[in-house]
Amino acid sequence: MEYFDLTPTLPRPKSLSNLFRGKTRSTLRRSFGSTFPGIGKIGLNIRAADHELVNTLESAELWDYGRVSVARRDIVRDELQPFAPLIARKHFVPFHADMIPTTSFGASLANLLTPVSWKAVRKPFFQAAGYVCQICGEADGAVEGHEVWQFFDGRGERNGWALQRLETILCLCRGCHQMFHLGLGAINGQSKKIGERIRSINEWTAGEYRSYFDNAKRQHAARSRRNWTLDLSAVAGPLRLDLKSIWTRTSSQTLSAKTATGNTETRLVGANYRLDGSFYFEPSSLNIGAVR
Ligand SMILES: [Zn+2]
Ligand SMILES: [Zn+2]
Questions:
Q1: Using one digit for the tens of pLDDT, what is the confidence trace for 258-286?
Q2: Among 66, 77, 129, 197, which one is least packed by beta carbons within 10 Å?
Q3: How far apart (Å, rounded) are the C-alpha atoms in residues 67 and 51?
Q4: Ligand nearest to the CA of 99
């Protein structure tokens, strides 16, 4: 049996292996009621080049941004399953999100890069997802890019800086994006709503969700005790990234800036970047094999 995994390169916590076994979905949840694509329908994660594969389907509709929707009852068909968002995959691995350590707050691509550069990085991921949420197949307004980082606890560490590697960028609606930021959700009083959404998508019991949440908090506390270098080698490729001018580079190769969350210090490896007219590149120190 093949189980669809939204983030196949992201390891799940070993202590929670029972939560992340491949599952067969029991029911297709009702629509969340977003404006796209409306009640009774679901969006597909399909590239423009593959549109003709679904054109013959009676319920298929083409929307703005080249988005494609079908009737929810059709999504269980075998020929549509490769384009189904996580919520509609018959066989799936529950998704997992690591909380960002306090020491990495403000050190996101969205915060580091100029708007033009950030858009260029996420565009191929959005195109591959057909500009539709990869979890629920819906969207209220624009989709958002979520950076999926893998934290290498105690591996590839240099001078007290551990590595977090960008694995992929997910194309998500706002409601699903919140499930990946549990800490922010707690601050905004959204924990209950977010928890219910995660439970329904991963088909977890209240107890299973509790273990997941407790583990996330424990890991967050441990990771917030060290500094993190951002490794962009798996995603940035040949792109040259432009950093916002709020960042300054010190002689120790550290980047620092005042961000919304306070003073942020970080390091960037595995990508060419430009700051104040100068170009920089530091190779990744992680020698653990390619992601793809
Ligand atoms: Zn969604
Ligand atoms: Zn995010």
A1: 988 788 999 999 999 999 999 999 888 76
A2: 77
A3: 10
A4: 2
- Rounded Cα distance between 62 and 64, Å, is 7
CA 186 from centre of chain: 19
ipTM of the complex: 0.99
- Ligand 1 center to residue 170 CA distance, Å? 11
> Which amino acid type is present at position 50?
D
Biggest alpha carbon–alpha carbon distance for the chain: 62
Q: Render pLDDT for 114-134 as a digit per residue (tens, 0 to 9).
A: 999 999 999 999 999 999 999
Question: Alpha-carbon distance 179 to 190, whole Å?
Answer: 10
* Tokens standing for residue 8: 């196949």
Q: Give me the helix-helix angle, 206-223 and 191-202, nearest 10°.
A: 120
- CA–CA gap between residue 11 and residue 185 (Å, rounded): 23
3-state secondary structure of 85: coil
